[in-house]
Amino acid sequence: MAAASNNPPLLEVRNLRVEFPTRRGTLLAVDDVSFDIAPGEVLGVVGESGAGKSLTGNAIIGLLEPPGRIAGGEIRLEGRRIDNLPYEEMRKIRGARIGAIFQDPLTSLNPLYSVGRQLIETIQTHLGLSNSAARTRAIDLLKEVGIPGAEMRIDHYPHQFSGGMRQRVVIALALCAGPRLIVADEPTTALDVSIQAQIIALLKRLCREHQTAVMLVTHDMGVIAETADRVAVMYAGRVAEIGPVRDVVKHAQHPYTKGLMGSIPSLGVRHERLTQIDGAMPRLTEIPKGCAFNPRCTVHGARCLIERPELMTAGSSRAACWRHDAGGVGQPVSKEMVDA
Amino acid sequence: MLAFILRRLLQSIAVLLTVGLVAFSLFRYVGDPINAMVGQDTPAQEREALREKLGLNDSPPVQFVRFIANAAQGKFGLSYRTSEPVGSMIVERMPATLELSFCAALFALLVGVPMGVYTGLYPNHWSSRLFQAVSLIGISLPTFLIGILLILVFAVWLHWLPSFGRGETVQIGWWTTNFLTVKGLQALILPSITLGLFQLTLLMRLVRSEMLEVMRTDYIKFARARGLSNRAVNFGHALKNTLVPVITVTGLQLGALIAFAIVTETVFAWPGVGQLFIQSVQFSDIPVMAAYLMLIGLLFVLINLTVDLLYFAVDPRLRAQGTARAAGH
Question: Are B155 and B243 in contact (CB under 8 A)?
Answer without folding.
Answer: no
